[in-house]
Amino acid sequence: MQHWLVKSEPETYSWADLVKDGRTMWDGVRNYQARNNMQQMQPGDLVLFYHSVSEKAIVGIAKVDKAAYPDPTAKDDKGKWVVVDLVPFRDFKEPVTLEQIKKDERLQDIALLRQSRLSVMPLKAEEFDILLALGN
DNA sequence: GCCAACGTTGGC
DNA sequence: GCCAACGTTGGC
């Protein structure tokens, strides 16, 4: 099983929205690297949910419910972009802030720090475990 | 194929 | 609100 992190501006779509909805189609990704990552996702993979911009913290764990399929919101180039379905899995008891991540020596290689603009990224198993421990 | 111009993301 | 980083577009 692989681990992932996705970003969302909470003003656009928040963790609370996902919990309320019970499931969401993760659409609108228009970046090749992010898309390639989404294509690797398998049902059951766990996905940390990061609130960017206003909050800058990981707030929960989602789970991949359906692997990549064509993004129906991609009008002109259907087949080029994909979505996955995510369901909420568990809340973080404590949000893990970007500041905490930056301070943690063990997390210096995390894609979140190395490539700040990427919105869908893989996490190493050990990074996932560390973040999980920090959030609980 | 290079690179300048421009747009977007996201941290500060 | 600013700006750095990065991706994309288009002229040459």
UniProtKB/TrEMBL annotation:
Ranges where the EVE domain occurs: 2-133
SUPFAM superfamilies in alphabetical order: PUA domain-like
InterPro entries per UniProt: 5hmC_binding, EVE_domain, PUA-like_sf, THYN1-like_EVE
Pfam family, one: EVE
The protein's name in its UniProt record: EVE domain-containing protein
